[in-house]
Specification:
alpha+beta, three-stranded antiparallel sheet, 3 helices, 5 strands
Length: about 150
């Protein structure tokens, strides 16, 4: 029968999902009754539950440290910090000045995985085109927050 010729049907009630009940294995005659085990179907995996009122455990934090050298200009540092970290030019200038004065500066504090990513992005940023002797990117490292 063509689709247009079908009579409209009544809207049926929304079906609720069916949840399988745990299956309880009956104790064998040769085992004590305390060996009864409830098993859940494989597709019913649940996330671990958190106790009410407890806080989730916080991941350890790591600093991304930028190290000073004489092969990169302030303009390079400011542009890199803006592109990789989203720091505005004024913040980039402050960080570039700090790394120049102190030899190192923390540019971000985050999770270990994110810190490793940002360190690798600094290492891949490339040489400073304004300085002929610039051989490559600036040095960066990560260290645990204390």
């Amino acid at each position: 029968m063509p689709l247009a010729a079908r009579a409209p049907t009544a809207v049926s009630a929304i079906e609720e999902p069916q949840i399988e009940e745990p299956q309880i294995e009956e104790p064998r005659a040769d085992s004590p009754a305390s060996d009864t085990v409830a098993t859940l179907p494989a597709d019913s995996a649940q996330a671990p539950r958190q106790e009410p009122g407890s806080k989730p455990q916080r991941q350890p934090r790591y600093h991304v440290v930028l190290w000073n050298d004489n092969e990169h200009t302030f303009q390079y540092v400011i542009a890199m910090l803006k592109q990789l970290f989203g720091h505005p030019a004024q913040q980039g200038w402050k960080l570039a000045s700090a790394v120049d004065r102190q030899g190192r500066v923390v540019v971000l504090t985050t999770t270990k995985e994110h810190a490793e990513l940002k360190r690798d992005q600094i290492h891949a940023f490339g040489a400073d085109r304004l300085i002929a002797r610039s051989q490559g990117s600036m040095r960066a490292s990560i260290e645990p927050e204390t």
